Amino acid sequence: MYAQCPECLTVFSFDAETVAQAHGTVACGKCGATFDCLPTLTEQLPEETYETLPVHPSSPAPPVLMMSVVRAGPEDAVQAPLFAHAPPAAEDEDDAPAGMPSFARLQRLPQRTTHRVGRWVAVCGALALVLAAQLVWAERRPLTANPNTRPWMQTLCGWLGCTLPPVADLSKLELISRDVRPHPSVPGALIISATVRNDASFTQPYPVVAITLSDLDGNRIAMRRFRPSDYLDDPAAQSAGLAAGASASLVFEVKDPGKKAVAFEFSFQ
């Protein structure tokens, strides 16, 4: 999940547990502002370049949830006989002991059919599979990133014909060098280059790179996020990811924001 700080416009990545801790109220780790993350909460970042995330429209009435998980109710309780010590039911009412009132005679209870039991077992099994699939889909990111559950997820994907995304750990991406200079052939443009190394023991996907240009006082002048498709021309290299221990040179072409931009910052998302 993603949400944007309304003060400094920084976009953060987090999970549902973080949202639930204070009912959507979070604190910005960049500028320290406290804000409600629910208006801009989104599962995917926009594909195109953006400055702010779209705000969800508010509604005076709560939304109605239509997708439900139905749980089978208990079977109707079988009523106990009126007399605890009544004699066994006769095969025929004419065989009942003489003088016994009709209301005291035990009636033969209907027996459950095998068809009905099998139907409920099939329904419960189908609901359990649907619930399990929903749980796996909701927790697919931590499950694929966990080394204990990833082999199981790979086996499941082999059955379903899908491919697991590479495991991402942004803390293992090390920025080795960076540089900014005027574009040699495009007036009013800059070329920003950087070298990043994957210190993880596994292949990682290329990250979203955020570049921020600021003035002498640290005020942000310009900021842009680059997806892997923006700075990698080879789709095969992008799909393969950054191998463990490997380094990659990244080059970005941006518009020159002016002489006030004297500092720049890289971050991975």
TrEMBL record:
Matching InterPro entries: DUF3426, Znf/thioredoxin_put
Domain Zinc finger/thioredoxin putative: 1-35
Residue ranges crossing the lipid bilayer per the database entry: 117-137
Alphabetized UniProt keyword annotations: Membrane, Transmembrane, Transmembrane helix
Pfam families in alphabetical order: DUF3426, Zn_ribbon_4
Protein name: DUF3426 domain-containing protein
Species this chain originates from: Oleiagrimonas citrea
Lineage: Bacteria, Pseudomonadati, Pseudomonadota, Gammaproteobacteria, Lysobacterales
